[in-house]
Each structure stands twice: as C-alpha cells, then as structure tokens.
Amino acid sequence: MIKNGPGHKAPGHKERARLSLPSKDMMAALAVTRFGLGARPGDIAAARTDPRGSLLGQIRPKGADQPQPGADTSAQRYVAMRAYQELRREAKDDGEPRNVAVQQANKAIREKAAADFLSRAQLGASTASGFRERWALFWANHFTVSGTKEITAAMVGPFEQEVIRPYAFGRFEDLLVASSTHPAMLTYLDQSQSVGPGSMAGARNGRRGLNENLAREILELHTVGIEAGYSQADVTEFARALTGFTVGREDEARAGQFVFRANVHEPGPRTILGKTYEDDEIGQGLAVLKDLAAHPATARHVAFKIARHFVADDPPPALVARLEQSFLKSGGRLDRVARTLVEAPEAWEPAAAKFKTPYEFLISSWRLIGAQPSAYERITVPLISLGQRGFSPPSPKGWSDMAGEWCSPDGLIKRLQWSQAFAAVIADRLDPNAAAVAALGARLTPPTAQAVARAETRSEAVALLLMSPEFQRR
Tens digit of pLDDT for each residue in 394-436? Predict the structure, then answer.
C-alpha cells in the first residue's frame, strides 16, 4: 500500500541535507547494478567519475534503444495470425487439423516472436545504457501485453518497439494513449470485441456486448490504481466510452491497425470519476484517457511503482513523494520523473533491497562475462524453468518484482543449477576474483570475496559469485 497520502509533501532542503550519500565507489556500483541491468567488464570503473551523471546522460526525449527490429510490424503480424487461425479452422473442417500449411504458418509466427525476444535479450546483455533499458522494461511491464493469448503472442515484440520504447521518456499521456489504442492491447484485453448495447451494431446483433477488460485494467493498473476508490459504475461507464476502439479487419485499408467504428460506439454522455463527458465518438474515450493521465491518483500510483521497482519492495515514502510531485509538476513528463529518481538521495541507499527477477538474473550473468545469448533457447529454456517465460506474464498485472515471488527454495535451487551449468561453460575465460570486483565493485563484501577466492575450481568460484547475496540482489 502507498504509505504517503495525498497531502504528503516531498522533503524540504533541511531534510535533504540530512540524507548523506554513499561514497563514489559505492554510487558507481549502485548506478550500474541497481539502476541498470548489471555490470559488464569496466562499467563500474567508467561510472565512478560521475555516477549520477552516467545515469542522467541516458535519459533522452527520443526514447529507449530499439533491439534489432523484426521483419514486419504489429499490423502485419496481426494479419498473419488471423490468416493462420482461418487456415487452421479450414483444415479442421476438412478433417486435417495438422496439415503442412498450418504447421508452416504456425512455425513462421513462432519464429518471429522468438526472434523478437532474443533481440531484446541481446540488447539488454550488451547495452552500455543499462538504466535506459531498465526504464523501458519497467514501462513494458506496467503496460503489460502477454503472449499467453494466441492472437497477441506475435505482437508483443512490435508493441514494445512501436509504443513503449519511443514514448518511454515522453509524456505519460502519450504513452497511455498509444498503449490503449495499439492492436496488441486491444486484442489482449478483448476491446476489439466490445460492442455498445445501444449502438447501431448492438441493436442489430445482440450476441456481442460490452467488454470491460480494457477499461478496468486502465483504471486499476495503468492509471489511478485501486487506491483511488473508483466504482464498478466508473468501470462500466469507461467501457462504454471506449466502445468503437478496435482493430482493422484483414480486408480493410487499415488492416491490423487501430480504427474507430462509430457504429459500435455506445451513444450518450458518460460520467466517470465524477466528471461527465459528452458524446464525441472517438473524442469521448480520448478525453477520459487524457484526464486519467493527469489525475493526482495516477501520479501517486505510478510514483509508488517506480520507487518499488528501482529501490525497495516497501519504498521510502519520501522517495514516492518526490516522484509524485515531479510527475504532477511536469505534466507527466517521464524524462523529468526519471531525473528525479536519479537525483533522489533515497534511491542511493547502499543496502540492496531488491531481489532480481529471473530475466534480470540471466541478463546480468551474461553482462558479467561481456557476452550475450546467441540463440533463443539459451535464454528461454532457463527462463521457463525459473518461472518467467519470455513475453508471457500470467496476467495484465505483469511480472511481479517482489522478492517473495522469486526467492522460494525451489527457485533458488534452480538458479543454483543454472549457475553451475553456466559457470562450467564460461569459467575458463575468467579470473573469478577480478570478475567479482568488476561485477559488484564496492558492493562486494569480504565474505563473498573470500568464498570466491577459496573455491577449489574456477567453475565453483563463478557459481559462488552468481549465487552470492550481492549478485542476486540489486
């Protein structure tokens, strides 16, 4: 729960003065391993001159870096998936549900999705801008689109490339609108099937009715949060305002892209969170999104999630307050919020409070050796074993980054098994003692350094390093 209420104010100058920063050596280690995705050889040494500056320089209006782009767009993927589904239906009617054409179409779609995820992992393992990449991944998880749904599976990679990365340091309103009108989100949350009961289409065909999924998740997860106290009536009214937001059919000029269909839009004014919105067709839903983006509860909700992700499962209330005020004063400028995070003294507490997710653990392990996964199987097989299948969060809430989700006894045993296998392959290339210093810097504790130094083999030393408390936490 959010600890600071609406009236809580950010610390003043006197309070800020009492918050002392750690040494430059420690700040350099934190800049790379907490704000970023882990240290490549030389990263911590490079950050030592100006740890904060090394992060601030990664904030840029044009957005986050792009992985190697896929061969086609989300719209093309959508059309391909619809064609595959139709082909499969026809094959089933013919009594041949597994014919060659179906298998080939399915393989092509799966290979493209796999290439998207591998490219993203390779970028994470190799980028010099770890904070910029972590920031993009945070927003991709905030606006979750999951491959657990077949129609969406092929579009998750393009969704990140077309929505999250371009807007990651822009205005929150733009990110919210772009995500809420993207075909991946519209299909994942069934908005493309929503029909206003009182619309022209609803009057003709009563089989398909109002779908509230997108409206509910925007309110609960993307904007104001459940703490805002909205009602079921607000969800239903918002869902009515969003009717008409859908995806172009395969035979249309905007196939696989966002379209607004007036004939499925529920007519009439809508009252949401106490404000009435006149019927303005597409403008009605967009007006609600704009107001939600600027709502004080959205600032609190987003600020808390950022602080929790970067700093601690139970983040400092003063840090949440700083981020909230930055969001409100800047009109939701995410570059300003990112700068506030980097400049906040609470974010530099030396104690590592965050436990790495499986994806973070694997990416930081590749960064440790200055390499990247060379094939999809190298990243996806261990992720599945560790409970974090690529591009497949189990629900619209996204992946949890709370320690309790990932540090179970079974999870730790599987991390140890992977660490031992990984170490057996790469240990001969490393001096484990030097690798420990390069990976953790001032965060390396004497017990861990001693354990690595006293290991009987290089492979054992590397595995000990990977499983050390300092490496598992950030």
Answer: 999 999 999 999 999 999 999 999 999 999 999 999 999 999 9
The CA-atom distances, in angstroms, between 253 and each of 182, 256, 257 are 16, 9, 9
Task: Please give the C-alpha separations between residue 318 and each of 223, 330, 342, in angstroms, as whole numbers.
Answer: 21, 18, 14
Task: Mark residue 398 as left, alpha or beta (left: phi above 0; alpha: psi -120 to 50; beta: remaining).
Answer: left
Q: Is residue 62 part of a domain?
A: no
Same domain, 106 and 218: yes
Q: Work out the angle at residue 257's Cα, subtended by the Cα atoms of residues 255 and 263, and round it to the nearest 5 degrees.
A: 80
> What is the rounded average pLDDT for all residues in the chain?
94
From CA 34, how far away is CA 54, in angstroms rounded? 13
CB of 170 within 8 A of CB of 76? no
Final residue belonging to a domain, choices 266, 293, 320: 293
Q: How many residues does the chain have?
A: 474
Tokens of 293: 């983006």
Rounded to whole angstroms, the Cα distance separating 271 from 284 reads: 11
DSSP state of 333: B
Q: How far is the C-alpha of 298 from the C-alpha of 306, rounded, in Å?
A: 12
For residue 355, the SS3 value is strand
Quote the distance between the C-alpha of residue 31 and its chain's center: 20
Cα separation of 29 and 439, whole Å?
8
430 with 285, same domain: the answer is: no
Per-residue model confidence as pLDDT tens digits over 334-364: 999 999 999 999 999 999 999 999 999 999 9
Domain of 177, in residue numbers: 74-293
Contact 443, 470 (CB under 8 A): yes
Question: Of all residues in the chain, what percent are helix, strand and coil, respectively (each to 5)?
Answer: 60, 5, 35
Tell me, yes or no, whether 371 lies in a domain.
yes
Q: Can you spell out the DSSP letters for 240-307? A: HHHTTEEEB-TTSTTBTSEEE-GGGSPPS-EEETTEEE---THHHHHHHHHHHHH-HHHHHHHHHHHH
Q: Is the dihedral of CA 77, 79, 82, 84 positive or negative?
A: negative
List, for residues 50-109, the tens digit of each pLDDT value. Answer: 999 999 999 999 999 999 876 799 999 999 999 999 998 888 776 666 678 888 989 999
Does residue 264 fall inside a structural domain? yes
Closest CA to 70 of 143, 154, 181, 145: 154
